[in-house]
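Review form for a predicted model. The reviewer records the input and the model, then writes brief findings.
Reviewer: anonymous (R2)
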Amino acid sequence: MAKQFDVVVIGAGPGGYIAAIRAAQLGMSVACVDYWSTADGKPAPGGTCTNVGCIPSKALLQSSEHYEHAQKHLAEHGVKVEGVSLDIKQFLGRKDTVVKQNNDGILYLFKKNKVTFFHGKASFGAKVDAGWSVNVSGEQTEELVAKNVIVATGSSARALPGLDFDETQILSNDGALRLASVPKKLAVIGAGVIGLELGSVWRRLGAEVTILEGAPEFLATVDRDAAKEALKAFTKQGLTIHTGVKVGEIKKTAKKVTVPYTDAAGAEHKVEADKLIVSIGRVPNTEGLGAETIGLKLDERGFIVVDDDCATSLPGIWAVGDVVRGPMLAHKAEEEGVAVAERLAGQHPHVNFDTVPWVIYTSPEIAWVGQTEQQLKTAGRQYRSGSFPFLANGRARALGDTTGFVKVLADAKTDEVLGVHIVGPVASELIAEAVTIMEFRGAAEDIARICHAHPTLSEAMKEAALAVDTRALNF
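Model under review:
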């Protein structure tokens, strides 16, 4: 017999589990279905983000940074350490512990908010009198029925044509997070967020890392000043990055992977590596969903077609996160999930894509929100720019990390902040102030007039805002 709910959410990643919790908070009866499992078959909600994405990668980034600091940077603080070595089992084990804590945390939140969780694969059945039927296949087969269904099935790594992931030598983000030993040589195709972050992890642990990027410019969508600063820092650290390349036919043997490529000038080269990470984008998870069964409209790339409110082509079916248009970011998915739940309750939320922040968690971190200087020039928008280097920031000096800067772009007439770009320590945290200012359509002068604690890294934001009016005080 079918189990009836007000809302069924398919997928327990950031978009799905947050949508389920918010709908439950608003008084709806909610079920959430997710198929992720631990090695021993237990539920592992959280989607790609928690299991093989955001969370484990940040855990490894943190651990690898500690390792590199112990090797190279503690001495300058007067801390002498000898015989530093890597316990790869503990290194990966800590990551697994962090992931499990997040899995368990989501299950706890479901219980706390009275969300009924089903562990298994979900697919659409049919349109029924009470709404939509959803079939769950797992240890037990279930039929769920709900007036509203929210699809939050996320995305998967895109493979190169003719080169499937074996997660042993040809690695997606999943395999790159669980290498049992440090490769001597590591090749990465794609200099985006995943390629740079995972390349940084294994470079810190001793791998010789070469990153190949097809775009002619490094981080082409990032503000040019920020991208240049980051490239300079990564190159100094030891990452080898080639842009404007065309990769040829990749060959692998039991012990190595050979990646031939043509550089921007047309010269032919090849990289021989122990492992290859392929990070060339992601594809939406719609296979097996049963979209064709009910006539749910997908676009030519497999994304579920939605309007500005995340409503699909069928009444009562919604979709959020990586499986729909827009940036593939966990926090974007969360915002959409909350918005859909609130719309179902008759509220009128909104998601402003113009103030969705982006972060690359390398060292230095790169974070930005709003428009780049290049976009403003292309649009013919009159603007003023102000920058402040962390080299002139007292807290950054004390930390021993003065790489990078904060850059504020503001309208030339109104002073409204149009974009903020940060390269440097904890940029991921600093960008929140810029998001807040921009969401309220604040001015650079507003940032400049706010009292910032001293000494803090956040003072660089204040100084950059002052620099928009050419009156920085410490540079």
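Findings: The chain has a mean pLDDT of 97.
Further findings: Residues 88-112 form the longest helix (25 residues).
Recommendation: see findings above.
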